What does this fold into?
Amino acid sequence: MQEHIFDIAIVGGGASGIFSAIHLPKNLSKIILEKTNKIGTKVLLSGWERCNVSNMYIEDEKDYVGENKKILLSLFHHFSQYDMIHWLEKEGIKTHTEDNGRILLDSGKSEEIVKLFEKKIQENDAILKTNFSVNDIEKKDDTFIILWENWEKICAREVIIATGGKSFAQIGTDWWGYNFAKKFGIEIVEPYKGLCGITTKEDFSSLSWISCLVECNIYDKEKTFFKEKWNMLFTHFWISWPLIFHIVLKIGEYIRNKGITYENEIPYIKENIDVKLIFSWDNIPKKILNFPLFDKEKNEIILKINDFRSWKEAKVTGGGVKLNELSKNFESKKVSGLYFIGEVLDITGKSGGFNLQLAWSEAHTLAKSFFE
Ligand SMILES: Cc1cc2nc3c(=O)[nH]c(=O)nc-3n(C[C@H](O)[C@H](O)[C@H](O)COP(=O)(O)OP(=O)(O)OC[C@H]3O[C@@H](n4cnc5c(N)ncnc54)[C@H](O)[C@@H]3O)c2cc1C
It folds into this structure.
């Protein structure tokens, strides 16, 4: 019997995989292969389960890390945060903007958007197969043969890899997408953690649960390579919150740009990188004024990084498939018919809706290219 060949198979039913499936041409046969028993788990978790769907102030490259950030301009020009808001509104989902430009659902319930996705998948005649963990993919002539755990197979003319990053692995993500790209000779930037806390050499337990607005300078020996003012939180064992989450990404990017591998990352950081926290006089908490490491003249604390929190806590992954390996519609230049989108790519945003918007914009760009 002749084997059925799908026009397109999408590996990964997360933000980018789903959004591409619902925007691809209806007349193409398509299947989403998702490892876990449901789609959009990270979308559900975003914004403390209120779905932080995008950000109002996405405007330039400083909010993202990665080697080829210049593509952001055309990506957001093609499908911006305003396009996402309008698309949701057209589908009956209202949003509003909160602090730092975060766009959230009015309902305060992420399930609302996942239910919409389920409906749109059906409407666009995409087949969804859950509990389907892709083990390997081979290419024979112009057909991809997708093998899964039980060694059954699915064939497709084109394949979209939307398997996400390695972070937050407890919900099903791992190294698969990166290893698969390497197998096809596609270069990647070695993945690094993003949006997690930092453990420090100093004991901050006396400042535990103090949060404040701080200007942070990160420097390598004497040279500052990143500055930002945002909120942070001291806890017993580590420091956290959006400013610190962003610092972890920025240090990861800096380290990879220097050609330092994951293995040597922490030793290099311990030896060379320091973080200066500069407080503003008008909002400085009293306990900080009495903290032994607080420099009263400069109004600052210099802290030494001990480590980053685990991959399980990291909300995103930096690094991934290099963008110069792909054409404008995310097709591999080396393997025709093979596409990569989402967090598996070497472009990652800071906390606050920047990553989901990136996933929507990439998925939409790719899907629309099938109409050309
Ligand atoms: C706790 C948490 C909170 C977050 N909050 C926000 C937020 O508020 N705002 C924001 O913008 N971003 C947030 N993010 C980040 C955002 O969710 C991700 O950047 C985004 O979901 C990435 O989309 P993706 O499609 O690339 O990957 P994912 O959404 O991770 O989807 C990848 C999918 O592929 C599947 N998969 C993996 N390997 C295989 C395989 N071999 N076979 C089949 N399927 C496979 C996975 O099970 C998963 O469902 C958050 C992340 C986490 C973990």
In short: Residues 72 and 308 are 28 Å apart (CA to CA).
